[in-house]
Amino acid sequence: MSNDFAAPSAIQGRCIGDYVLQDSIGQGACAKVYLAWHELTGTEVVVKAISLKGFPRYHREVYSLQNLNHPNITKLFEVITTPDKLYLVMEHVRGGDLREHLENHGPLSERQARAAFRQVVSALRYCHQRGIAHRDLKPDNILLDEDGTWKLADFGFSRKVSDDCKLSTFCGTFHYLAPELLQREPYDGRRADVWSLGVTLYRTVTGTVPFHADSLAKMRDQVLAGQFEVPPFMTRKGKHFLRMLLTVDPSQRPTLEEVMQHPWLSVGREELRPYSEPPGGDLDPQVLETMQSLGFEPTR
After folding, report:
1. At what angle are helices 236-245 and 189-206 packed, to 10 degrees?
2. What is the dihedral of CA 133, 257, 263, 233, to 10 degrees?
3. 293 in a structural domain
4. Degrees (nearest 5) of the Cα angle 176, 69, 170?
5. Any idea which residues carry the catalytic annotation?
6. Do 212 and 110 fall into the same domain?
7. How is 198-266 classified by DSSP, letter by letter?
8. Is 227 in the same domain as 117?
9. Coiled-coil annotation: which residues (predicted)?
10. pLDDT tens across 24-80, in order?
11. What integer pLDDT is reported at residue 296 of this predicted model?
12. Are 48 and 140 in the same domain?
C-alpha cells in the first residue's frame, strides 16, 4: 500500500476511482460513509467521503491509518483525492459496531467483554506505541467482523503524541471524555484514551455509561469526583480493572502497557502480549490477500 495519494480517475455517476458507491451507511459533520464495490473484482469495501472545506483535520486520519498495521485496526486500502473531497477506501467490517450490538443484544457478559477488550487493548496499545492517540474511543468506533474479530475504527480525531507534548484540543464524545478534558487542562491523549476505555468497558457490561445526570454540569461534577457505581456482578479482578481505568488523576491512571499486564485480561487465557508486526516490513498477510482481491499486485 502506497503512502502517496492515488490520482483519481474520472467520476461517472456514483463512481469514484475504480469503486461504485452504494448506499450511505453513516454521516458526520464532515464525512459520509458509503458501501461500495470494486469494479474489477466485485469486492465490497467502505468508502469514507470527507469534505476538504473547513475541516483541516482530515490528514490526521490518513496519517494514522497509513502508519498502523494491526489485525484489530480497520485497514486503509487506497486514498483518492478530488478538488473538494478526500475518499478513504477501507475494508468493510460487516458485523456492525459495538453500540449497535449492545442495543440489539444487550450487555456482554464479563467473559465476552474480556474476549473483546483483549483485542481492543492490543490495538490501542499498538497505537500508543506508534505515537498515536485515538481520542474518540467509544462503542460506536469498535467494529465487529463476521469471524468475531473486534476492530478499532474512525481515527478522525487521532493525533500524534509524545511524552513531552501535551494536547489542548477539546474533542471526542462527552460521556467518554476524561476529567482533564472537562477541566480544559493540557492533557496526554494516551491517558485520556485509557479513561475512554474504562467508560466503554462499563457500558459494554451494563448497557449504560457510569456517569449520568439530568444536566451536563452535574455529570461533569460526577466525573471530576470519580463518583460511579461499580457493577456488583463483576468479579473482584473485573472491578479492580474498571476502577483502575477510571482513575480521575491522569498522572495516576495507568498506561496501556500497564493496562495490558492486568490479570483480568488474562483470566482463562494466555498472557496478553504486545503485537509484533510481520518481520522485514512485510505487509500483514490479511492485508495482502485483500489488496490482491482488489486487483493490486505486490511489488518487489
Report:
1. 140
2. -20
3. no
4. 25
5. 136
6. yes
7. HHHHHHHHHSS-S---SSHHHHHHHHHHT--PPPTTS-HHHHHHHHHHT-SSTTTSPPHHHHHT-GGGG
8. yes
9. none
10. 888 766 778 899 989 888 889 999 888 877 555 556 677 778 888 999 999 989 988
11. 57
12. no
Report residue 280's pLDDT band, with 50, 70 and 90 as the boundaries: low
**pLDDT attached to residue 10:** 37
Length of the chain: 300
Q: What domain range includes position 83?
A: 15-92
Positive or negative: CA dihedral 285, 261, 140, 163 = negative
The closest of 186, 152, 142 to 168, measured between CA atoms, is: 186
Query: In which residue are the cell numbers 476511482 written?
Result: 17
Q: Give CA–CA dist 188/169, Å, rounded.
A: 11
Q: What is the CATH number of the domain that holds 214?
A: 1.10.510.10
DSSP 13: T
Residues 19 and 126 in one domain: no
Do 29 and 139 share a domain, yes or no?
Answer: no
On whether both 105 and 231 belong to a single domain, the answer is yes
Amino acid letter, residue 228: F
Which among 173, 168, 172 is positioned nearest to 184, based on CA atoms?
Answer: 168
Task: Count CA atoms within 13 Å of residue 112 on its CB side.
Answer: 13
The rounded distance, in Å, linking the Cα atoms of 77 and 296 is: 10
**Which of 202, 254, 205 is closest to 223 using CA atoms?**
202
250 and 116 in one domain? Answer: yes
Please indicate, yes or no, if residue 257 is contained in any of the structural domains.
yes
| Residue from 147, 173, 134, 139 nearest 71 by CA | 147
DSSP letters along 64-128, please?
HHHT---TTBPPEEEEEE-SSEEEEEEE--TT-BHHHHHHHH-PPPHHHHHHHHHHHHHHHHHHH
Task: Find which of 1-5, 86-90, 244-248 is predicted with most confidence, using mean pLDDT.
Answer: 244-248
